[in-house]
């Protein structure tokens, strides 16, 4: 399985001056933990990391000590996550028929989750890891008034990995670009193109590290796993 890791963001919500994926988590850059989980997954055979070129020296420095037996390629990302994944799709090796996309910011995903997504891709053309939401979700208008409360039973929180047939995801990205769609995950492009996307049970701990409290939680969880 080929894996793309979008890592070309800046981490505005983290409030740090550098890419949040380079912040220290238990003595290592956050992105190291993500890559280590992917390397430990039996099914992943190739990794492409989307980054901004100014971060490449730091990415190379964090990759070196991992001594990856699998090819790891740095690919120039774009201005948005969507553009970064678009670039990654162009850079996939020709033989890639399926691809997993996994956010660099989800450093707590386990190797088993990558393997379960790989296995599930044998039975569909698009899937995402997801978990039922815990909070009641409100739809709120621009003035701060609630306009609706969707039934929580039908609500799932999208995670990554997300997995796709390569030709299909490329076509949906092309369509999205033509139509000017702006989406925050790849599944949404398939949905807009009328394609079916399946849910794979994600992991409760598979947080996207977004704000400073998430960093503290990640350190706690990773520390527990090492203990
Ligand atoms: N990402 C990317 N290219 C971008 C923007 C984001 O590859 N132009 C990546 C991030 O590096 C991250 C993942 O997409 O691994 C999920 O994005 P998010 O959590 O929003 O990260 P940032 O965009 O860096 O954070 P923020 O939105 O707070 O600025
Ligand atoms: Mg972002």
UniProtKB/TrEMBL annotation:
The record marks 13, 20 as: Transition state stabilizer. It comes from the Bacteria. Keywords: Isoprene biosynthesis, Nucleotidyltransferase, Transferase. One of its GO terms (molecular function) is 2-C-methyl-D-erythritol 4-phosphate cytidylyltransferase activity. It catalyses: 2-C-methyl-D-erythritol 4-phosphate + CTP + H(+) = 4-CDP-2-C-methyl-D-erythritol + diphosphate. The record marks 152, 208 as: Positions MEP for the nucleophilic attack. The keyword Magnesium does not apply. Pfam families: IspD. The keyword Transferase applies. PANTHER family: 2-C-METHYL-D-ERYTHRITOL 4-PHOSPHATE CYTIDYLYLTRANSFERASE, CHLOROPLASTIC. Catalyzes the formation of 4-diphosphocytidyl-2-C-methyl-D-erythritol from CTP and 2-C-methyl-D-erythritol 4-phosphate (MEP). This is 2-C-methyl-D-erythritol 4-phosphate cytidylyltransferase.
């Amino acid at each position: 399985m080929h894996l793309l890791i979008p890592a070309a963001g800046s981490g505005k919500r983290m409030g740090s001056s550098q890419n949040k994926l380079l912040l220290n988590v238990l003595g290592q850059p956050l992105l190291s933990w993500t890559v280590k989980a992917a390397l430990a997954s039996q099914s992943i055979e190739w990794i492409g990391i989307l980054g901004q070129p100014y971060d490449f020296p730091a990415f190379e420095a964090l990759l070196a000590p991992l001594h990856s037996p699998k090819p790891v390629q740095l690919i120039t990302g774009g201005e948005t996550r969507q553009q970064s994944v678009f670039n990654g799709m162009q850079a996939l090796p020709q033989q890639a028929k399926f691809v997993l996309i996994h956010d660099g910011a989800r450093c707590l995903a386990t190797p088993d989750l990558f393997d379960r997504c790989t296995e599930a891709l044998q039975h569909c053309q698009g899937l995402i890891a997801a978990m039922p939401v815990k909070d009641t979700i409100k739809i709120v208008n621009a003035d701060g008034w609630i306009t609706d409360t969707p039934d929580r039973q039908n609500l799932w929180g999208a995670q990554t990995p997300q997995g796709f047939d390569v030709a299909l995801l490329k076509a949906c990205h092309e369509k999205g670009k033509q139509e000017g769609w702006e989406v925050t995950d790849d599944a949404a492009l398939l949905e807009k193109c009328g394609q079916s996307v399946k849910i794979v049970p994600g992991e409760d701990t598979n947080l996207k590290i977004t704000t400073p409290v998430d960093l503290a939680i990640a350190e706690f969880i990773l520390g527990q796993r090492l203990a």
